[in-house]
Amino acid sequence: MTPTTLARRRLLGVPFAALAGSLLPQRRAHAQEKATLLARLVAKAPATPEDPAWERADALDVPLSPQAVVKPRRYEASVTAVAVRALYDDSRLALRLQWRDAASEAMKGGVSAFRDALAVEFPADPKAGIPFFGMGEANRPVTIYQWKSDWQPAPRNDVDERYPNMAVDWYPFSGRGAGEIAELGDYGGKGGDKAFVTSWAAGNTLADAALQGQRAVEKLVARGFGTVAPAPSDRQDGEALAAWKDGVWTAVLSIPLAQEQFTFTRGQTVPVAFAAWDGAKSERGGEKAVSTWYFLSLEQPVGVVTYAAPLLALAGAATVELAGLHALRTRRAQAAGEEPPRAQWRAWSADLRAWLARRRAAGG
Q: Which of 192, 215, 238 is the last residue of a domain?
């Protein structure tokens, strides 16, 4: 046993038993259910939750359980399942994700509020093998796309949305005049200086109002617990749009087929896992509901040739069989001193033509 394996087993010892206890009952209950989602090929992958194309997509219900492997642990999950559908086109893969959440939380300004969120995870390089579903491993990293409810209205989602009656004096270097409330995004605009938003200036995507104004999803990479880090700004290529109605979030997450270390291709099957956070229950970071690995398979379209191939093969086999049968009968006829089948056929054909001629003559 290698030191790495031993350390991993020590890490996953007692905490993993707690996770197993929460996961196994659900896995048994879902043992007869499918574990693979088929992504169908379409002309254009939909970008909105209400697109009618989703009704023709394959569906997969994924159970979620509380993350209880590492601290901070949770022993009761607020979100217990997510319903997933998938479609793809020549350049992008789109996933529609639905889950129940009693309240919509967008973390409007302040440190005591937390966002609703949902993440999709898959191996950064499927050829390297299947990593541990809990944030990957050192030699088997994972790619994560996390939709964040507070990024969707960004960069307008700020303190004044949480406290609409607030009053201000002046925000210097924001580009706003005295008495005007400055939004985070103003510091990157005309007359603003984002050097006064230190984390943004340092490249932290959590404070990048320009990025958040363009997309509601963050791309991350992880190599185990505590290692998650955002992809560089020029590789933030996910797109998302979500809506909350009647206690249900519906989000569409769109990602490019071409990833850094591999490309989703037709006919390929890739492990995929999911995680959800309920901001109203103060879930954030490692306090979340997670799934084990499921599988996403990209449909391989069936062309006309595929359908015709069995018929052509059957016709070819029949031709060979008939030719062999004809040769056998010919040899038998010759051995018996009889006319070969071909000569018999010619004689029968001549008799038939003569009979038809007599019928026509009689009719005339």
A: 215
